[in-house]
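U., I forgot to send this yesterday:
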Amino acid sequence: MSTHLRLQSYKNDAESLRLRSNHGSFDPTAVLIELGGNSLDPEEITSEEEARRINSILLHERHHWLQHVGTTGGIYNSILLQFEMGVISSTPGLETLTEEDIPLLRSAHPERRRIVEIWELCEQVRRAFFGCRIGDYRELDTGIALPTRTLTDALANHIQKYVPGPSGLPLSFPQFPKEAFQGGDGYAVPQHRSWVVGIRHLMEFSARVSEITKLVVDATLLGDKRLDVSSLLAGIYTVAYDIFLKACGTAERSMTTLVTAATVCDIALNGCHFPIGPALLQSPGLLFAQLSKEMHGFDFRRAVVVNVPSTVRDLVDAIYQHLEDRTGVDWKATTLATSGLFGHLTPFDMGAPFEGVRAEGRPHTFPNAIEWLAPLWGKSASIRTDHPELFILPACIYTDDRHRFHHLFDEIAPPAVKRLGTLRGTRPIDPGWVPWMLQFSIEADLLRGMVYLDSSALATTLARHVQSLSGNSATREGSLSAVFHSVYFASRKSPLGVSLVRRIAKTLEVDSPL
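Result:
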């Protein structure tokens, strides 16, 4: 495929990084939940019904966070994104790049072309795993595949750079049998309608079920019989459900069916994906289709009260047992393996990473994203062991006892929610958190954008990190400083970094510090 077509493919599929709906989004590179849309403006909220709708959207995005840190599918996606950043940051001569050197995809420099080739092979893997339009996937299909062992070893080495093992020893990964690396290069890509089915589709359907559950419980408590949720199961939100219903052959259409399908989604999301299994071992979409087929014969008439966690837990246990009986696999084993791999780590105190920020004036002492996320992976696995329903249908706990929900969720909650341009902490956080969050997202956008954007388009992308913030002047000023410093240091103080800072300042109509 021509360079031009590949550039267009990356630009057109830029949203493949995020889980986005009309009124909210979750961005794994920014570890941030964002709520938006006119219907979320407090001045536009004219009814209790609208307020309930907003809370259901927030629960939907919180579910995405739980999927992000609480399933091997979410973990693998994060690791791939961080590994891609590491690949681009190793570009030869990064500290000497100029505006004319990007996009790197057009580079004639042999070593830089090799770096981009590695990045593209990783992106092809990530795009198929995450899920995308069939056309976008085909445009990246070069006919070359990363060997399973090569990618597995590369990802393991990347994590070991930032995550220590118990007692300070090197992190020790599971010993994968040789058979796992044989014939693994022909990675199956499941398709449904116009989609390559991946974790995106399983996550969106499951989170929508939780959202619907919240709306149904609220309407029932208020005696509101007008609620129609059929429009919420359409488009991308029904891909997984369509596959499930066709595969298992049930004619039942009930909350039990929805919760069962969401549970099978969660089991597929939390399958033997890296780092618990070798990279490229199995497609989550294909695993979901296979497990859905095994649900044939399950009793879908079984009653479930969605705001009574014990009944949801009973249904979940019955599904696990049914699948274990049919497949001979203990589908809870990956949770124990994740806990065993990362459970020794202690989650960061939200104030701890920022001690040098005010004195240094730059995000110099911040942890790497993997370093920060890994303890949350271990903590999530520990919570899942006793409360799998939190990750499968968080609405069942939330609608039963909000305090109980927050007791479990807040230990692994994302740092903040952005709503109407203002960042709000989900728990007490140090004032230095804003530049830290911005560093995560800016470095990700910068390194990724260098591959396929020119300097003007890249500067516009980076400027949005401040344009989307309102809040008080101190927050905006701190955000400006963080953006400038993050761009400059992430680009290794290169001439390109200087040019980008100046372009961003011009876009924002402020003075450039360089």
